[in-house]
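> call design_seq(struct)
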């Protein structure tokens, strides 16, 4: 959220009306079934808990790559932590326009970047690489845009919040992949 003369503006750089975009998204796809699905995704992604549980399950079910799964899960946790750190620096408030329906509670009033988009992108990039042989990689990648869109449907993020979260998650995942490929991080073996 930009401030000008004490007034809060819901415009992104370049004058894009983000609140208007959010309202348009909600008007087009605000259906009870869509909102229920978005709420379920929100619950799964809260504090990256669902993604961390999947990483733990991967480590338990794939003993040959247990350390790789564990390192990937640590990368997801790190991505989530990075998004929280950026939120505390930027301090952008969540959407508050009266035209925007908010369909879920949030643990904070801070919006930029979307932690759900960050941890989801990191998890999908990291876990998809581990699931290549199973055929689950393709369907898993569809979760990134679905999670990003769910944050708009629920009215808790502006479009730039989810774009920034997606970019941050991808960057954290790529850094984690490099660590995995090296085979160690300090004393920790990653494979």
């Amino acid at each position: 959220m930009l401030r000008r003369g004490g007034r809060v503006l819901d415009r992104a750089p370049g004058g894009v009306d983000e609140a208007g975009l959010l309202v348009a998204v909600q008007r087009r796809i605000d259906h009870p079934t869509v909102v229920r699905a978005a709420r379920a995704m929100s619950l799964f992604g809260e504090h990256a808990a669902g993604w961390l549980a999947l990483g733990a399950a991967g480590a338990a079910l794939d003993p040959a790559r247990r350390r790789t799964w564990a390192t990937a899960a640590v990368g997801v946790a790190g991505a989530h932590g990075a998004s929280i750190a950026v939120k505390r620096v930027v301090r952008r408030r969540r959407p508050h326009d009266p035209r925007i329906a908010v369909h879920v509670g949030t643990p904070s009033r801070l919006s930029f970047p979307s932690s759900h988009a960050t941890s989801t992108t990191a998890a999908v990039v990291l876990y998809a690489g581990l699931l290549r042989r199973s055929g689950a990689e393709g369907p898993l990648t569809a979760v990134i845009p679905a999670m990003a869109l769910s944050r708009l449907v629920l009215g808790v993020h502006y479009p730039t919040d989810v774009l920034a979260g997606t970019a941050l998650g991808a960057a954290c995942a790529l850094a984690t992949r490099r660590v995995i490929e090296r085979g160690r991080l300090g004393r920790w073996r990653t494979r």
